[in-house]
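User: Predict the structure for this protein chain, please.
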Amino acid sequence: MEYGSAGFDEMMCERLTFQRKVLEHGFTFLWSDMDTVWYQNPLDIMPKGFDFVGVDDSYHGPKHLEQNTGNLCGCFMFWRPTQRSKDFLKDWYDNCAHQAGDDQQALNRMWNSADMKQKLHWYIMPRQLFPSGTPALSNLKIDWSPNEDPARPHTLFPAWIHANCRTGHEAKRGFLKERLAWNITDDSKYPTC
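Assistant: Here is the predicted structure, written as structure tokens:
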């Protein structure tokens, strides 16, 4: 299914019912998009005790605080099996299934509603650890090399690279190659979806 098609939007909306079932069985889960390369184990660096941990999908300058975001990314979600989480996923599905737009638009409509953030114990991860692939961040100086620099011991090395805001396999591969995250040679065979 192509991104933006009616079938794709329906699939992304339906996944919310499966995610909720995972929570109803008492499991915690981490959702991550496939166009992501992990440099660190997110479970080692995420704060504990929240119903939901997510990431910001926007950039409005260096003074923009992630906790004030109005633009969550559905590409990374950590959920604990609390009643608040289950209710949020049900409301998200209902919003997605019964209004125009995709699951991301539904998520942010809910997130920006007057009381939705009050219904969930949540935290948004720092942009330095979880930078969005948005073009607005393309000119920022982020050290993508996995080697630690002893001269800069307080530099935060990103936990991931996410090729969002890129459409098509070539664009995503190019973005990952530029950031030293794609090590498969062009003549190698690898699975695609």
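The mean pLDDT is 82.
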